[in-house]
Design brief:
Blueprint: E1 3-8, H1 16-27, E2 32-38, E3 41-46, H2 52-64, H3 72-120, H4 122-127, H5 129-139, H6 141-154, H7 159-172, H8 178-208, E4 214-218, E5 224-228, E6 237-239
Antiparallel strand pairs: 1-3, 2-3, 4-5, 4-6
Length: 249
């Protein structure tokens, strides 16, 4: 059953295009299956296994990209909250990356070992079919969980479901080693995906890190001066140079 999460928006979208853009960004967050803007709130439909707190942080990070220049004080608060997101999530990404690297290396190592045994001692290779099958199934436990249980819960197959089907077919055909190549490629591709997500999260963190405490203000005499961001007021002419972050309107 889909869970509902409601998030208050800083401001009501100005038009239909902005509503659609907000909803599309929200649907990019893992665990979100639907998004609908209703006035000044964002109503989200979540997967049963999704964490509401994690989704809330993810949506805040993505929507924060469209909320730049709401005022120095508000931006400072938003940046402080977003700065805490990559740290905890980064540990999870690093752990997931290590698991995929480990799975790819073990799959390749098993494939090489089986091939060596097959060439050196075909009799021993033929007598260890059950052991090889057990090894492959043990290597695929994570895929079994995400592929089979995920398909049952979400009522639709995914990429892991297809991988698990191929593994089971090879085991039933008494050729379990043939699926090790598939497992190695699967773990390798997942590792590349995680690395891309890690890089994207790092870029978002850098973008939203509004650590600028002073800005250039052009006075009535035409001279630029650096003043604390807290002293910027309505009517001041703020100037930004190439490579600087725009932290106020």
């Amino acid at each position: 059953m889909t869970k509902i999460l409601t998030i208050s928006l800083p401001a009501e979208p100005a038009d239909f295009r902005e509503c659609c853009l907000t909803e599309a960004r929200a649907r990019q967050v893992p665990g979100v299956v639907s998004a609908c803007v209703q006035g000044g709130t964002l109503r989200l439909g979540l997967k049963p296994s999704a964490s509401a707190a994690r989704v809330r942080l993810g949506v805040s990070a993505i929507l924060g990209l469209g909320l730049v220049s709401r005022g120095a004080r508000a931006l400072g608060d938003t940046a402080s909250q977003l700065a805490r997101l990559p740290e905890g999530a980064g540990n999870e990404i690093a752990e997931e990356l290590r698991e995929h690297k480990k799975g790819a290396l073990l799959s390749l190592g098993g494939l090489i070992a089986f091939e060596v045994i097959k060439r050196v001692s075909p009799t021993l290779f033929a007598s260890t079919t059950l052991l090889r099958s057990a090894w492959v199934i043990m290597m695929s436990l994570g895929l079994f969980k995400s592929g089979l249980l995920g398909a049952i819960r979400e009522r639709r197959p995914n990429a892991d479901t297809l991988t698990v089907t191929a593994v089971m077919a090879s085991v039933l055909a008494s050729r379990p080693e043939s699926s090790l190549t598939l497992l190695a490629l699967s773990h390798f591709s997942e590792a590349l995906t995680v690395m891309a997500a890690q890089r994207a999260r790092s870029n978002i963190s850098d973008l939203m890190s509004l650590d600028v405490r002073e800005v250039w203000v052009r006075g009535e005499d035409g001279v630029e001066r650096r003043v604390p961001i807290e002293q910027v007021g309505t009517g001041m002419l703020v100037e930004f140079h190439a490579g600087e972050k725009i932290v106020v309107d």
